[in-house]
Design a protein that fits this description.
This protein is of the alpha/beta class. 51% of the residues lie in helices and 15% in strands. It folds into 2 domains: 3-152, Rossmann fold (3-Layer(aba) Sandwich), CATH 3.40.50; 157-296, no CATH class. It has helices spanning 3-7, 12-23, 35-48, 64-71, 92-98, 115-125, 157-185, 192-198, 202-239, 248-255, 262-273, and strands spanning 28-32, 53-56, 83-87, 105-110, 132-138, 141-147, 243-247, 281-282, 293-296.
Length: 298
């Protein structure tokens, strides 16, 4: 399955929403009528977030205790590779019966044929997470539905910019490759079909998209981690009553990453490392918090 070709069936806004949910550990439920297709799509989703480790339910662990052992180091070591969980169709219901929370899970489900059974299933799943993204992946239907969250409240600036850059950079690369070949072709009399074959970069286009996507995601992750290191030290100062904040502009310049709003980076840090540093961001107005204060302006 070619993930980017599947995504082409969705509007860019919904593609960005998928990425938003992956980054923010919102559980994604992929439903369809073909288990093999759904499971392949789950693999593609998990590979998008390459900086996390992919664990498969009923392969890497089968119980709550084993799961807790796998992620136990996350709470004590910030450099420990975070996990996301992939759950194939054949064990999805088993997993939902065992685990009370499925944040950061990617779950495949063969959709019930009866509408009332589907309603009951979704009602059951809704108790497992505060927000859930459903992707319907049927042979004649592709749709996305974010439940228990207002789409208007979601800022997809980062995600939309990433996909825009993928599209632009891919086209630039293809044009360059075609130009080089065209320079060689025009000086020779070649069969038309051969020329068409030589200038066909559809396979390469898919690979280019994946590489550019990985680069952009890595840039965001690395920038966020640098922000995490800075904010965690400022938080330490606050804990010893040396009250300090940092301006968003200063922070973005310091981490050398200005492709995402500071609110998006802080949100990601909260989801990835479990630390809420939103109070450390200076809003541009000097606020006094006692005799000891350090003001870092942006």
């Amino acid at each position: 399955m070619n993930f980017f070709k599947i995504l082409d069936k969705f509007k860019r806004h919904y593609i960005s929403l998928i990425l938003y949910c992956l980054l923010d550990r919102i559980p994604i439920i992929v439903m369809g009528d073909d288990s093999e297709k759904v499971n392949s799509f789950l693999i593609e989703l998990s590979e998008l977030i390459h900086f996390r480790r992919d664990y498969v339910f009923y392969t890497d662990f089968i119980s709550l205790e084993e799961y807790e052992d796998l992620i136990s180091n996350e709470n004590i070591d910030y450099n420990y590779q975070r996990a996301h969980i992939r759950c194939p169709c054949d064990v999805a219901i088993k997993a939902l019966n065992i685990f009370k929370n499925v944040d950061s899970w990617l779950i495949g489900i063969v959709s019930p044929r009866k509408k009332e059974d589907l309603v009951k299933l979704k009602d059951f799943i809704s108790k497992k997470a505060r927000i859930i993204l459903y992707i319907s992946l049927f042979s004649n239907k592709f749709s996305i539905d974010l439940e228990q969250m207002n789409l208007k409240s979601v800022d997809l600036t980062l995600e939309e910019n990433i996909f825009k850059k993928i599209s632009q950079d891919t086209e630039k690369s293809i044009i360059k490759m075609k130009r080089v070949l065209n320079d060689k072709i025009t000086s020779n009399q070649l069969d038309r079909d051969l020329v068409k074959t030589l200038l066909d970069f559809e396979v390469e286009k898919s690979e280019l998209k994946k590489n550019i996507f990985k680069r952009e995601i890595q840039n965001f992750y690395s920038g966020s981690k640098r922000a995490f290191f800075i904010l965690s030290r400022l938080n330490l100062l606050n804990n010893i009553e040396i009250y300090t904040k940092i301006g968003s502009k200063t922070l973005l310049e310091t981490i050398d990453y200005e492709e995402a709003p500071i609110e998006r980076i802080v949100s990601f840090i909260r989801k990835e490392w479990g630390e809420d540093f939103s109070d450390l961001i200076e809003d541009g107005k000097k606020s006094f918090m006692g005799d000891k204060i350090v003001s870092l302006w942006g």
